[in-house]
Structures are given as C-alpha cells and as structure tokens.
Amino acid sequence: MDTYSFMRELADSWVLLAMFGFFVSVILWAFRPGSSKTYDAIAHIPLRDDAPLGAADTTKKGASDV
User: Fold this and answer.
1) 31 backbone φψ class: left, alpha, beta (φ>0; ψ -120 to 50)
2) How many CB atoms lie within 10 A of CB 31?
3) Residue 52: which region, alpha, beta or left (left: phi > 0; alpha: psi -120 to 50)?
4) Residue 40 phi/psi, 5° resolution?
5) How many Å apart are CA 2 and CA 22, to the nearest integer?
6) What secondary structure, in 3-state letters, does the chain show?
7) pLDDT value at position 38?
8) What is the pTM of this model?
9) Angle (CA) 43 24 33, round 5°
10) Cα separations (Å) of 3 from 11, 31, 43, 62?
C-alpha cells in the first residue's frame, strides 16, 4: 500500500471521526449549563458605561482644542 492510499483511508475514517468528536465537544462546551452568565456578561460589554483607557484625558479637551 502506498502512502497516499494509507493517508486517504486514515483521513476518511479516523481523522473524520476525531474532527466530528472535537466539533461535538466544542458545541457541548458552549452550551454547558453554567455558561449563560458568562455569555450574558460578554454580550453586554459594548453597552457598558466604562470609559476606555486614556479616554479621561481626551474628554476634557474641547472641540476647538482638537
């Protein structure tokens, strides 16, 4: 058996099975029971009133200073 045929058989069977197992485990990890609080906090990051770093210096300038 040459190398190409062996690699093709390996990719068609065991590697495909391993990739599918990895995909399923990532989906299960994302939808695990304790993760909803984490994802809610991440989803609200753009809506926070926190000022970005260095923004305090730029907000004190007037429009004519720029």
Assistant:
1) alpha
2) 10
3) beta
4) -65, -40
5) 29
6) CCHHHHHHHHHHHHHHHHHHHHHHHHHHHHCCHHHHHHHHHHHCHHHCCCCCCCHHHHHCCCHHHC
7) 87
8) 0.54
9) 45
10) 12, 40, 48, 70
Block mean pLDDT (10 aa), the chain, length 66: 88 92 95 88 85 60 57
CB burial readout 50-60, b (16+ within 10 A) else e: eeeeeeeeeee
Q: What residue type is assigned to position 60 of the chain?
A: K
The whole-angstrom distance between residue 27's C-alpha and the CA centroid of its chain comes to 12
